[in-house]
Amino acid sequence: MSNSKDAVRKILDAVKADKRTSLTAPEGKLVCDAYGIPVPKEGVAKSAGEASKIASGMGFPVVMKIVSPDILHKTEAGGVMVGVKTAADVEKNYETILANAKKYKADAKIEGIQVQQMLAGGTEVIVGSITDGSFGKLVAFGLGGVLVEVLKDITFRLAPATKDDALSMLDGIQAHDMLKGVRGGDPV
After folding, report:
1. Superfamily, domain 2-117
2. 33: Cα separation from own chain's centroid
């Protein structure tokens, strides 16, 4: 585990040195890799051709996302394309995403475009951490995607959280029944 902690420390130190308070998606993937958390296949492309090659290598459909420490709300910036089905569409979308990002924030530092395996089904959740002025370091959990902003259905525990704390967070959100399986759906 010390190697994984060293790898994560290196990533966090680099982000801190950059005076940032959040990780890019590829940095988040490296943290997940370090702790053995499975994530979809992905790669970061610096050109339309490279994006096409990455996508073809992992198989279609793919999701494409802008990678920029200056653009946190990628969808809002027109920086996300979902269900891209062909190499030609990947190349076209690469240029569109770049143009959208520049329109959204002209001086944004752009590191490339993440090409990611598109997974079907499942339940999107958010797992995160924040530093609260009163309570200090907290771990957060809730339903992910747009739901986190619309429903604001999120729960917190003091860090470091135990396994029991983590399991109690599953019941700590109002939408906990969705996780248990609704109307014949499988529990997640």
Report:
1. ATP-grasp fold, A domain (3.30.1490.20)
2. 13
The one-letter amino acid code at 105 reads K
- Nearest to 55, CA basis, from 117, 127, 107, 111: 117
- How confident is the model over 6-64, as pLDDT tens digits? 999 999 999 999 999 888 888 998 999 998 988 899 999 999 999 999 999 999 999 99
Bridge partner residues of 114 (DSSP): 44, 65
Are 41 and 114 in contact by the 8 Å Cβ rule? The answer is no
DSSP state of 153: -
Q: Is 78 helix (H, G, I), strand (E, B) or coil?
A: coil
Return residue ranges of the chain for CATH 3.30.1490.20.
Answer: 2-117
The structure's pTM equals 0.74
pLDDT tens digits for range 51-106: 999 999 999 999 999 999 999 889 999 999 999 999 999 999 999 999 999 999 99
Bridge partner residues of 65 (DSSP): 80, 114
DSSP state of 82: E
